Amino acid sequence: MSLQPPTGAGPAMPASQRRAAGGAAVAMIAGMAVLAILAPRFGAPTIFLCEAGLMLAVLSAIGLALNGRVLGAAIDGRNRISLSKLQMLLWTTLVVSALITLAAYRLHDTAIATLGAGLKITIPGELLLAMGVSAASFVATPTILSLKAAETPSAASVDDLATARGGTERSIGKVDARKSPANASFTDLFRGDEVGNALSVDLSKVQQVAITLLLLGVYAASVFQTLLTAPTANALPALDKDFVTLMAISHGSYLAYKAAPKTSSGVAGATDAPAPQDQRPPGAVPVARAHAAAISP
What is the mean pLDDT of residues 191-215? Predict the structure, then answer.
């Protein structure tokens, strides 16, 4: 079973506003190009920060065009903010902004004779490995959740979550989902993904958020220092191997915990409808009710 967006979503964003958001995204992309052309008039760190800000603004406009939320690009098919999508977006923003800034300054450097030489910027292997780890989580997360979406949760766990959420809950199998993108929340970054733990703190996610912010902050500082001292450098700064190892361990434990079962199982399609009188002995308990009693927490 694939993770399709739940039906019953809230009011759709007007088409005119979607078009306006899309137009704003195109305009800001053009603004990034103009900023690169004007690069020599400003300091490289300033251009880097502006390019990163514009790229985040482009992603926000795309999110508005998709589902009416500024963080729409990070909201997945469950109408929840996805940690793996957010990580991918942040790493992409950081690296692409740094590449654009370096390329802009190199192309304006008269000592660099050709266009090809100006655009020849080395990306360190450690950075590629770090982005590969992030991409692996981005792919593995929906795969794991799709398997859980094909499983049936117990009626009690579904009812408990729906009651706590006040009607915004709409599970897909054992996977927690929301009725509308409007119900997505930053707390999704720290809560479990299943019906059975959606109201609990997921420590693997807390660890992921902390390590991601640490690595992004350290690497952003390295980029800033490089642009401050050598804005025409031919390579992005390297990422420490120990940090990459830490990132890989964090992502591995995060995916392993996500794959572990956390929701009691129910009986697919079971009902309490009585069996035909000639097939059920007097006083027998309906099968579905007996199953429910057996799997109740």
Answer: 91
What is the band of 40 on the pLDDT scale with cuts at 50, 70, 90? confident
**pTM exceeding the 0.90 threshold for the entire prediction:** no
Task: Look at residue 147 and tell me whether its pLDDT is greater than 80.
Answer: yes
CB burial of residue 294 (10 Å; 0-12, 13-18, 19+): exposed
Give the number of C-alpha atoms closer than 13 A to the C-alpha of residue 295, restricted to the C-beta side.
17
Q: Under a CB-based contact definition with an 8 Å cutoff, are residues 74 and 81 in contact?
A: yes
Tell me the residue ranges of DSSP E strands in the chain: none
- Rounded CA separation 10/19 (Å): 19
Token pair 């929840």 is found at: 80
Q: How far apart are CA 129 and CA 245, in angstroms?
A: 10
Tokens for 155? Answer: 């009626």
As a whole number of angstroms, the distance between CA 203 and CA 189 comes to 10
Residue 275 sits at the vertex; the CA angle it makes with 290 and 266, to the nearest 5 degrees, is: 35
Q: Is the separation of the CB atoms in 69 and 21 below 8 Å?
A: no
User: Are 170 and 179 a contacting pair, CB within 8 Å?
Assistant: yes
> What local confidence, expressed as pLDDT, does residue 91 receive?
94
C-alpha 184/C-alpha 175 separation (Å) is 15
For residue 46, pLDDT over 60 is answered with yes
Rounded Cα–Cα distance for residues 32 and 101 (Å): 10
Burial class of residue 139, CB neighbours in 10 A (0-12, 13-18, 19+) = exposed
